[in-house]
Amino acid sequence: MVANNGALGPQPDFDIMADHLSEIAEHIRRCSNIPTVQGNKVILQAITEMRSELRRDIAELRTELRRDINELRTEHLSPLHSLLSNQQIPDFPETLSDIDALGAHPLDALLNHLDVPSPPTVAEKRAAFKKAIGVLEMRKRRRTGSWRLVGHGSIAHRL
Prior knowledge:
Number of strands: 2
Number of domains: 2
Number of helices: 6
Shape: rod-shaped
Order of helices and strands: HHHHHEEH
Keywords: Coiled coil
Distance between the termini: 92 Å
């Protein structure tokens, strides 16, 4: 200990402080050897690997889903039955691409057979018809650029 310097009182011994700080630092380094700390590292690594794998899987699923939806555009649709007559709806579109080619009047007739109110614009009529028959589509989010599946429910859920 450093000698008492009169009115100042006892002074710190920096050598002793440095030795103690060195010992504290050594023991802090040894904390990484504690089994729970090592176990947490293993758990964190496993979570990181799972997260990467999930991201890869989701990206693959999105790609497959986009491909499947594109293939469906040319696949033949089965005509639905009219809620008005219980007969097959006349002039029912054969493919999803055919729906995109329909004008206002044919869409109005189809929506009428399905007892769905007819929106004002052709684009809204197409969307209402697709929703009524249960068509799902992939749309890109504006903000994030990620893809999402839209269009849920169908006329079948209302029966």
